[in-house]
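Worked example 2:
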Amino acid sequence: MQLPVSRRSALGGLFGGLALTAGATLWPLHAAHAQFRVEISGVGATQIPIAIGKFRDEARSPQPLSAIIKADLERSGLFKSLDASADRLDEVGRPPLSDWRSKGADALLAGSVTPLADGRFDIRYHLWDVLKAQDMGGLSLVVPAGDLRQASHRIADEVYEKLTGDKGVFATRIAYVSKVGRQHTLVIADSDGEGTQAALTSAQPIISPAWSPDGRQLAYVSFEGGKAVVVVQDVSSGRRRVVAGFKGSNSAPAWSPDGRQLAVTLSRDGGSQLYVINVDGGGLRRLTQSAAIDTEATWSPDGSTVFFVSDRGGGPQIYRVPASGGSPTRVTFSGSYNISPAISPDGRYMAYIGQVDGGAYRVHLMDLASGSVKMLTDTRDDESPSFAPNSKQIIYASRAQGRDVLMTTSLDGRIKAKLATPQADVREPVWGPQLNPSRR
C-alpha cells in the first residue's frame, strides 16, 4: 500500500524501546512561527452582513479584540463585516439601528474593554438585530491579559451561535506537526492558527496526533527511541507515557468517544492489524484478522463502529467493522485509492483522501446515509482531513507554492481559508473538541 510520507513512517521499521517519564511543557512559539496569515477564497450562498466597531478603549488592550472577532466570523464564510468604528459605539448606548439598516447591516456588534487595577481586563459586548431592532444580549468577561485572544474567540462563538443557531468553534484548538530543518514539533494553536505553543520538540518524526474527547490529552506516534510507539501526553502538565510499545510497529492512535480506549495499528503478530487498547496500556484486544494492511482507524461518534483503511481488496479502501469485532464491510467504491477517514461529530459525513485521475490526492466528503460522494478540493497533495467539533468545517493539510500548508473548507467546498506558516512545513492537523473555558 502506498501512503503519504507521514503515514508511511508509521508503518516503517521498528527498533528498540522507549521509556517516557519526564514531563514536557507547552511553550510559546512566537520566535519560531510568525503569526498565521489567513486567506479566504470563495463566497457562501448567503452571508450575514454584520457591523463591527472597535471596542471602546480597545487601544489600551494588548490584543485587537474587534479585529479577532471580525476575522473569526469572516473565516466561517457566513459573515460579511461592515466597519462601525467611526460611530464610536459601546455596549451601553443603543446604536442608531435604522441608520445601520439603511447601510445594509443585519446585525451590529459593539463593546468595550477596560483595564483593571489588578492587571486584568473587563470585556463587555452587546449584539443587536438591526432588521428587527432587537437587543440580542451580550456578555461580560474579566480575564488576564493572556486570555484576551481566547475571550475574543468566545465572543465570536456567541455571535455565531446567536445569528446562525449553530455552535461556533473559534474558541477551540487545533494540533499539528511542523518541521523546520531536522526539528519536528507537535504544535497546539487556537483555531485561527494564532497562539501557537509547542507540546513536544524532537529530532525524530512525530506523526498521527489525536485529541482525546475532553481535549486534555494528545495521543501521537513518537520515534524518539528509534522505534514507533504510541504515546499519550497530558496537555496541561506535559506528562506523557507510552501506551503501545509492542514488538513491531505501533501507530495510528484513535480515541474512542468515551476516552477510555484507543484503536491502534500494531504489527506485533505479523502484518499491520487493528487492535483496541485501554488508555492505561491494558486490555489489548485484536479487532481485525486479515493478511492485509489494516490501519488508520477512526471511531463513529456513538462508539459502535470503527472505520479504517485496508488493502484487502487489492488497493487501499475504507472499511468499517463493529467496535466489538466482526466482519468488515467496504465503504468506499469510487476510485482505486481512498485513505484517511474522518467521521463528522454529528455522524452524518465521512471525509477522506481519494486519489483522482492524474494522481492528485484530494479531500472527498461522503454522506454516510446515502453513500453519495463529492470532491471538496481541486489541489493535488491533500492529506489528513479532520472535522471541526460543530461538523461545519474541515481542516486538512495540502501544498501550495511548494510548501505544506493548512487549509479549512466548508462542507460544500465553496469557502476555503489558508493558514500559512512562512518558515515551516506543517501537516497532520487535527481539530480539538469544544472546551470548557476553565480547562484552557
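Confidence is low (pLDDT under 50) at residues 1-24, 30-38. Helices lie at 5-10, 65-75, 97-102, 148-164.
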